[in-house]
Amino acid sequence: MIVLGLGVCHSAMYAPQAAFFAELFGTRMRDSGASFGYQVTGVIVGGFTPLAATALLGSGGGDAWPGAVHMAVFAAITLVTVHLARAEGDSHSPREGKPSMTTLPPISKFPQVDHDDATGELAAVYDDIHSTLRLPWVAFAIRVMSQFPAFVPDAWRALRPLISTRYAEAGADLIRQASIIPGPPPPDPRPKLLAAGWTEDDLARLHRSLDALNYGNPKYLILITAWNEAWHERAAGSPRNALSGPDAALLPYGLPDGVDKFDLIDPDTATPDVQELLRRVRDLALHHGPASDYRVLAAWPDFLEIAIEDVLAPVALTAEYDETARRIRAIARDHVAGFPAVGGVSRRSMDATFTGIESAGLTGLLFMYNRFIADITIAIIRLKQAFDGPDSATENKFPT
Fold first, then answer.
1. What is the CA radius of gyration of the chain?
2. Which of 67, 123, 133, 207 has the most CB atoms less than 10 A away?
3. Residues near 53 by Cβ (< 8 Å), separated by ≥ 6?
């Protein structure tokens, strides 16, 4: 029995013990935690056990059963604590000592300055962007780049008189018309939505949001293209270009009639099922965060799920999608080159404002969002196409 106990039972317990103790603690306290726990309990429990066993043996008149009960009680305590310790230990990453990815929410909000958090000059710029572009949201790209405080106000001042013209509006119309992915049309989501209990009023509200998003995304592609081209001192407008006639006319200031500012679902406070949808739609195009458009559409989780599975997933990352994105980015660059002035600020002009790391960060963001906004423009037009066909999806629903 001694050979069986020490050779088999004790070895079976002792073999996984080192890994078990290590996984109970994060890397910042693993050595101290495992050592302290092991050594202190060894002194307290192991040191007093012979005395306790002797006392129990004496109290039992020489019978062994009190000692056996003693061991059984400690075995039961061990089973319970091992179970509880594993449940707690599983919530720690063995690499970082932080909660593991499986215990974190599916997604979190990418760092940005939301409209409600903007103050002072930046808040005024956000309001002016709403009214000048006639759009119910400030683009994800702008909110992220607003973490570089001087850039967005300066770049907006340069672009504002240009993007408020009918010439810029015409460029957005060209982008919209070129944003249909070639190939079979997407399936109509209405049968599934109606089967899920949607009413015609529900569909109408969704359509109004899609129309506003499709109106705005091409305009934001013009904006980010102008800022990106100006940053690199490429063809971002020239005084040699003169706008005249209808092209030079200014758009009305303010949101179109019947359009209210969007409420964007916050990924940090959304329900777990909505967080998972936002993660899936982000990962579908290998993006860094869910676009504002999807934070708007997350108000209708059942529609967003259908949109992801039936409309977007079959074409995401395909050659046809990429070629469509390349085409509309080229249209945006050509149109920006026709501005009568430079529609942004250059990196060299802001050398005194930004550190090298900040300049590099902005360069990466401008490059990334030039592609990101093109992707989203195509995606949301495809969602509208699924309902009403390509002509309706590419139509400017808020002409002036």
1. 31
2. 133
3. 67, 70
Helices 200-231 and 166-177, interaxial angle, to 10°?
110
Record the tokens describing residue 226, joined without a space: 């102008």
Q: Which residues are 99's β-sheet partners? A: 92
- The candidate with the shortest Cα–Cα distance to 359, out of 204, 150, 96, is 150
Q: How many domains does the chain have?
A: 2
Q: Which two tokens stand for residue 389?
A: 């066909």
Burial label for 358, CB within 10 Å (0-12, 13-18, 19+), is: middle
pLDDT per residue as tens digits for the range 18-43: 666 666 665 545 556 666 666 666 66
pLDDT digits (tens, 9 = 90+) for 107-124: 788 889 888 889 999 999
CA atoms of 141 and 286, how far apart (whole Å) = 16
pTM, entire model:
0.74
Whether 14 and 124 share a structural domain: no
Shared domain for 202 and 69, answered yes or no, is no
H-type alpha helices, the chain: 2-4, 11-14, 17-23, 30-41, 47-59, 65-89, 120-133, 140-145, 151-163, 166-177, 190-195, 200-231, 272-284, 292-297, 301-306, 319-337, 356-393
Which of 61, 82, 103 is where one domain is finished?
103
Rounded Cα distance, 398 and 255, in Å: 10
